[in-house]
Amino acid sequence: MSDSQQAREHWSSNLGFILAAAGSAVGLGNIWKFPYITGQNGGGAFVLVYLACIAVIGLPVMLCELAMGRRTQKNPVGAFKKLTPASSTLAHLIGGLVVLTGFCLLPFQQYGWGVMMVLLGGAIFRYSWVVVGAMGVLAGFTILSFYSVVAGWTIGYIWKAVTGQLNFSTVEVAASHFGHFITNPGWAIGCHAIFMLLCMVIVYKGVQSGIEYWSKILMPVLFLLLVALIIRGVTLPGAMAGVEFYLKPDFSKINTNSVLQALGHAFFTLSLGMGAITTYGSYVDRKQNLFLASLSIAGLDTLIALMAGLAIFPAVFAQGFQPNAGPGLVFQVLPTVFNQIPLGSLWAAIFFFLLLVAALTSGISLLEVITAYFIDEKQWSRARATIVFGIVIFLLGCLSAVSVAGWENIEWLHRLLVAVFGSVKGSFFDVMDNLSSNWMLPLGGLFISLFVGWIWGTKNAMAEIRHGSANFADVHLFSLLAGLKDDQAYNAEFHVLTLASLWGVFIRFISPFAVLIAFFYTVGWLKLS
Ligand code: PFF
Questions:
Q1: Which residue has a Cα nearest atom 11 of ligand 1?
Q2: Is residue 364 classed as helix, strand or coil in its secondary structure?
């Protein structure tokens, strides 16, 4: 082991690591997105489908990322570099196919896409699997740039709640206020700057005294605020209709679309597919049980998402509003709901503060991926990496922040994108969101499972996972389920169904297949009724 590896910082405790990783997972995805997609997809039934996706795809991929990080003690690029064999036929094949597709696009005058695919294919051919790690670091830039804009809106809304400006009589008034607020460049950029600054300060302080220290404070605060909001919500007269809507499954509203939406969301909400969990895994020591860690992280993430729904729907129903308002649920419907209840400004301030805390612990994990890459691979100091890339992401985010008002202010960018890609759907903000959530994360997840399943190998990965896991991997699941733990066969050498074998099958076959289908569907290449 080299000096730089020995000097790598580690989490000071198991709890600190779990809270930091759960902090990365718990974010806007849980409190803003999960409740509204549940609202649109039939409440309880969707929750069940989502839980199945977390168990079948999320947990196995999370174990892969943790194992890769801990084994290599590196950022995602470094991790792939260390584990990639000198030559990989599969990578050559994929690279060649991508180059070929790029060339095929050129005669159709799709120059932007064509050239991009030729370059990407060439990179895959040359650098093999390391490109997956690089895509993760790139996704860190992309996601954080627009994530920080939304987090900035929550800062603005905390201020508005505290100064009593959220006194909307109807959702329409709230919607128009929200529209004015997010299209005001001063507010949007100012609040985005504050959020980026908070992320930079924490990441600058390092793994233990920055990320871990603040996660240990912020996560319990988040939990307590959420409990307070749930108690307030469910004790309002008429709240039970909301609880029933949320928890009573209505399977008639579930279709293929809901299943794929649940699968896509499972990746985003668990921070998978871009190396955030790999990076956090690289600070874990060999004594820790990665099975238990991934169960706790996914469990906490799911718990908070479910609790967020319980904090929101009962209050929405109690005040007679609709649950299917979509993305505007949190910024438009909720402030109107709070305006109608006693001490409404206080509750609104608590809610938006909660949203900010959730976003902050996720934002720092995104910035840490980039920081770790420049520290490990380019030998930058932590201070330099955090400051330089904090500013770069801030600048990129400014484009997203002003783009929600329309392309007028950044016409040059619009022209550039149209010239390269032919057409652009939505604002620059939407482009960044679409690029990362629909392309980079699912593709990252797909390639991570393929890599661990077929290239690095489930055997090597399992050897890493076994450290600190006691006999978890080899527990005979059949005997355990059958209540035969004391049976002689339980200790036999040959086990058919163990956690290790189950995980191996999932990661080699089921995860890649499911992710591929979900990916084709989300990007519109597969139409299902
Ligand atoms: N998991 C976060 C959320 O649910 O809001 C978003 C996220 C954070 C995605 C970090 C990816 C990541 F690396």
A1: 271
A2: helix
Record the pTM: 0.93
Q: From ligand 1's centre to the CA of 473, what distance in Å?
A: 28
The answer to whether the beta carbons of residues 465 and 160 sit under 8 Å apart is no
- Taken in order of first residue, the domains within the chain and their CATH numbers are 3-84+129-522 (1.10.4160)
> Three-class SS of residue 26?
coil
Q: Is the pLDDT of residue 252 over 90?
A: no
Residue 495: band (very low, low, confident or very high) from pLDDT cuts 50, 70, 90: low
DSSP E strand boundaries for 225-365 = none
The phi and psi torsions of 43 (rounded to 5 degrees) equal 60, -125
Distance 358 CA to ligand 1 centre (A): 10
Asked whether 365 lines ligand 1 (CB < 6 A), one says yes
Cβ(67)–Cβ(293) below 8 Å: no
Determine if ligand 1 sits within 6 Å of the CB of residue 282: no
Residue 359: the pLDDT is: 97
CB 428 within 8 A of CB 120: no
Cβ atoms within 10 Å, residue 126: 12
Q: Is the CB of 76 under 6 A from ligand 1?
A: no
